[in-house]
Automatic annotation (TrEMBL):
It is a multi-pass membrane protein. The lineage of its organism: Bacteria, Bacillati, Bacillota, Bacilli, Lactobacillales. The phosphoenolpyruvate-dependent sugar phosphotransferase system (sugar PTS), a major carbohydrate active transport system, catalyzes the phosphorylation of incoming sugar substrates concomitantly with their translocation across the cell membrane. The enzyme II UlaABC PTS system is involved in ascorbate transport. GO terms for cellular component: plasma membrane. It comes from the Bacteria. This is Ascorbate-specific PTS system EIIC component.
Length: 502
């Protein structure tokens, strides 16, 4: 009887996880539908909200996938062109590395990752449900990211404390990951609310601690300028370029030109024959056909960046309004004082659009310099830049930094982020053994925060589990103590929050 019940529960969970939780478009649509039903809206309005939110997120994913799929072959081509044995920093390469290596390295099944995800997700919801005590206000809803992080977290815990049995691994990492999701997305609420002027969401992705750090450093840079008697920092949107340079004031034009220069150089280094080979290997899906113009192939690929970015921004505008409005029903009834944590790409439709491109370019410069240093000093692991960390981390850092401290911060902070991504990924992936399988998650939090947690877990063992949990539990308590009167007001009524904190 009990076995049948457990089997039934796991079957329901498997259906939900495979078709909704790990499919962000349906997860967002599902949240909107539940929110509107809790608000007792007519079924046809609830259905319309579900469809609009789902389609909007699908539009976002078209843009996001176009960015990744269009440029991943170019960056990984550097590995093939120079015959490097290297680790690609990319969430999907990282997930594949766990899939390929976890049985060979630890004798464990990758199937446990989905159970771990369930425990972490339920724990995240419970933490937000009891926000009165935990001070946590954001539910992590980005399912594809949850799978990637559950996979890497699974590997890290097996490496750090190999004596844990199966149930202990699932419970311990489920709790730690659920805490990280709740605490990390909660840390992004203030910078995102200020960026979006009360957009009503948080970021649930791979650089949540990074966003909080960039916001804090940007404020420090702004304060330093004021103390030095300088006027407020010049933001990218306030820059008016003279003469022919005025074309760079237009976001699409600036993005197209800069991407043409950036990727044009890389594609010329790879050579025309490389893209002919890609065309053959992919049976015409990508690459350059024989006889086609290499120049126009470079131009089309580069312009595709601007196209996909515009699609992504359209998707954000389509679903964010529905999500924000409907989540009121959930926060009023099931999860008080809460907001949804969603994909970082949602921030790109707010603030100065050129900050997205500037953040990406300066982050790329930092990454490539760091990769050059690894090769120069004969690092045991050479990192290949993956497009997702290269773009999604550093673009949001550029947007946040520009919004708070201006153009200078939007250049400096992503640049240092790029260096940190490469050096941090090289160190942690080599140490824990994932580099042997060709990939590591490689995004900002997993190059900084999680290596720190891994050290604690590895050298303190069971005590380390408690230490990491206490660190995460303490963070929202400290946030709350800074402004207890307005802490929850920020998500309940942002207009009232602004009035009280003028």
């Amino acid at each position: 009887m009990i076995n049948n019940l457990i089997t039934g529960i796991m079957a329901v969970w498997s259906f939900f996880a495979n078709n909704i939780l790990t499919q962000p478009a349906y997860m967002i649509g599902f949240i909107v539908l539940i929110g509107y039903l809790l608000e007792k809206k007519p079924w046809y309005d609830s259905l319309a909200g579900f469809l609009k939110a789902t389609i909007g997120y699908m539009i976002l994913m078209v843009g996001s996938s176009g960015l990744v799929n269009g440029f991943r072959p170019i960056l990984t081509g550097l590995k093939d062109r120079f015959h490097l044995t290297a680790t690609v920093i990319d969430p999907y390469f990282g997930q594949n590395a766990v899939t390929d290596g976890v049985m060979k390295t630890f004798g464990r099944s990758f199937g446990d990752v989905m159970i771990l995800l369930l425990i972490a997700f339920v724990f995240n919801i419970l933490l937000v449900r009891f926000s009165k005590y935990t001070k946590l206000r954001a539910v992590f809803t980005t399912g594809n990211v949850q799978v990637q992080q559950a996979a890497t977290g699974f590997w890290i815990l097996l490496f750090a404390i190999p004596s844990l049995n199966r149930i202990e691994v699932l419970l311990v990492m489920g709790v730690l990951l659920g805490l990280y999701w709740a605490v990390g997305s909660n840390m992004t609420i203030k910078p995102v609310q200020e960026l979006t002027d009360g957009g009503g969401f948080a970021v649930a992705h791979q650089q949540m601690f990074g966003i909080a750090l960039v916001a804090w450093l940007s404020d420090k840079m702004k304060k330093s300028n004021i103390q030095k008697g300088k006027r407020s920092a010049t933001k990218l949107e306030d820059v008016s370029l003279p003469g022919f340079l005025r074309i760079f004031n237009e976001n699409m034009v600036a993005t197209a030109i800069l991407m043409f220069l950036f990727f044009g150089i890389i594609m010329l280094v790879l050579g025309e024959n490389y893209f002919h080979q890609v065309f053959i290997e992919t049976k015409g899906v990508s690459g350059l056909a024989k006889g086609a113009s290499f120049f126009f192939y470079i131009l089309t690929t580069s312009l595709g960046f601007a196209v996909n970015l515009a699609i992504l921004q359209l998707g954000v505008r389509t679903f964010v309004g529905e999500l924000t409005e409907s989540f009121t029903g959930i926060s009023d009834t099931i999860l008080p004082n809460s907001v949804p944590g969603i994909d970082v790409a949602a921030t790109f439709a707010f603030g100065e659009q050129n900050a997205v491109t500037i953040g990406f370019l300066f982050g790329a410069l930092g990454q490539f310099l760091a990769i050059g240093a690894l090769m120069l000093f004969h690092s045991p692991t050479i990192i290949i830049a993956g497009f997702i960390p290269l773009f999604f981390d550093n673009a949001v850092f550029g947007v946040i930094a520009n919004n708070r401290a201006g153009a200078k911060a939007a250049m400096i902070l992503p640049f240092f982020s790029g260096i940190i991504q490469v050096v941090g990924a090289a160190l942690i992936s080599t140490w824990i053994g994932m580099s042997k399988f060709g990939g590591y998650l490689g995004m900002f939090d997993w190059d900084t925060v999680w290596p720190g947690f891994t050290v604690i877990l590895k050298y303190l063992g069971y005590v380390g589990i408690v230490v990491v949990a206490l660190i995460l539990i303490l963070i929202p308590q400290l946030q709350y103590r800074k402004d207890p009167k307005n802490y929850f007001l920020m998500v309940e009524d942002y207009e009232a929050y602004k009035e009280k904190t003028k």
